[in-house]
Amino acid sequence: MEYKSITKMRLAHITGSPPKPSHFTVLVRGIPWSPDHSYSDSVEKFFSTYYPASYVSHQMVYDSGTVDKLMKDAEKMYRKLKTIEPHCTDISMPCCLCGGTTHSFKVLDNEAESVKSKTSVDGLQPTQREKECPAAFVFFRTRYAAVVAAQVLQSSNPMLWVTELAPEPHDVYWSNISIPYKQVWLRKIAILLGAIVFMFVFLVPVTFVQGLTQLDQLSHTLPFLKGILKQKYMRQLVTGYLPSVILMLFLYAVPPTMMLFSAMEGNVSRSERKRSACIKVLYFTIWNVFFVNVLSGSVISQLSVFSSVRDIPTQLAKAVPTQATFFTTYVLSSGWASLSCEVIQLFALLCNVFSKFILRSKEEASSYCALNFPHHTEIPRLLLFGLLGFTCSVMAPLILPFLLVYFFLAFLVYRNQILHVYVSKYESGGQFWPIVHNTTIFSLVLTQIIALGVFGIKEAPIASGFTIPLILLTLLFNEYCRQRFSSLFTRSPAQVLIEMDRQDEQWGRVEEIYNQLRSAYCRFPIIPQDLSMAGSTRHLSMAGGTRHREDKESSQDPESLKPGNQPAVHHIS
């Protein structure tokens, strides 16, 4: 019933959320190239022809790598200048670097005056057509029209005119938008192979860690340790606590690596990138922390266990109890210790200390750095501990009190961190719940398979006979949940969308929504938007009459020019 409860909360999130630009926007990739027309003209012609009643306008994506670099450099320079006092006295003293004379200066009171843009659209975009990417954001009148356009196959060639619902403006991962769609599937295959190779390369440190838990093999391999290992304290330290600590240190390199792999895949949103990294880290930890440690030994013996499928339950039933001590220590070192580090934010604290006392920076870290909840590290850890609790409960139930304390403390810690520490830049809408559900079902099935092996070892045919239907019922329950609820996490119901569109019309919010669309997906809002919106008046008048816009100053606070906030060199055509 948890799946049903989460589904209701997701529907409440959809219906209760205010109108957002992402509700009316579709991301189009794989736009075919034409020697006679630009990409912008092709998009306008295509959607004006096939969606004449619902199409409003579009915004092209440009290759803005140089502009992005310039904006980052400008932001760094602004942060340095911001730390200078507004009023400085003239001083003349030897410079510590070259021995010359230093001269202070006065910062302008009006920061906007120092960043006024004197460039025109033509000056910033001398060759717009050459800089166009085969991708665009297309705006529609209603949510329902946007969802229909996103889910329908637009062309007989599936690699052309590929549509999907656009992510939220702050969720867009701009560096991947310009990747040609034909390269995406090649990237996914390459990253899959790279992740598999990395997973098997990680067998080396895991095998080394398992060697520490076996005193006989360790003394035989390293004879000079025999005298040290005779001491009870050292024996308990080497075989008990040290392996889990070493494994935990090696695992710290996994989330950044998987995040890099997910970024190289071509995901167009930060939430999708983090979700993909979460899945990779989850598979990686389950394989290396559980299966490789349970089926410990040489790599050849680990693979030979799966040569006979009939022996898998028996092998797991024999191997899991032998690693109960290691798993309990791992829960203490990786679980309880991680909660204390989560509370004090050790990494952010060290970075702040280094910035304040080593680099002598006067700027507050919170002014430019906001912490986001690390879904790709915390969710896999929680699910791994759930897997350990399920599988060890049959033969080694002493681990359960430690896990119970961990989950109780984790609830308090993560609740406080989410409410008071982490800043949410975008909403995932419960997209991580299917991962939690599928992993929990996998843990249940694996536990039942281990129980089947235990009953086989104890020669209890009646208990084994009742266990097999239990496995089948668990799989049927998972299939029911998938058919009944999972589709709501990938698609939005038309009934709900149409009702929301009607409410917008009744409450007169259509005009406000269209005004938001005009500037929502602007990455670098330097250019006056009345110039960058040239040509869009005709389409907007179709949606709700002609709207005139007053000229705005081109100067803005440099803090608002942060990369990733909003495209620059992007326009609505």
Write out key terms for the chains shown.
globular, 5% strand, mainly alpha, 573 residues, disordered C terminus, 4 strands
Word description of this protein:
- There is one protein chain.
- The protein is mainly alpha-helical and about 575 residues long.
- About 60% of the residues lie in helices and about 5% in strands.
- The protein has 26 helices and four strands.
- The chain has helices at about 1-15, 40-50, 65-80, 120-125, 130, 145-150, 175, 185-200, 205-210, 215-220, 225-230, 230-250, 255-265, 270-295, 300-305, 310-320, 325-345, 345-360, 375-390, 400-420, 435-455, 460-485, 495-505, 510-515, 530, 535-545, and strands spanning about 25-30, 55-60, 130-140, 160-165.
- It has a four-stranded antiparallel sheet.
- α14 (about 270-295) packs parallel to α19 (about 375-390) and α21 (about 435-455) runs antiparallel to α22.
- Mean pLDDT is about 75; it is low at about 85-125, about 295-305 and about 525-573.
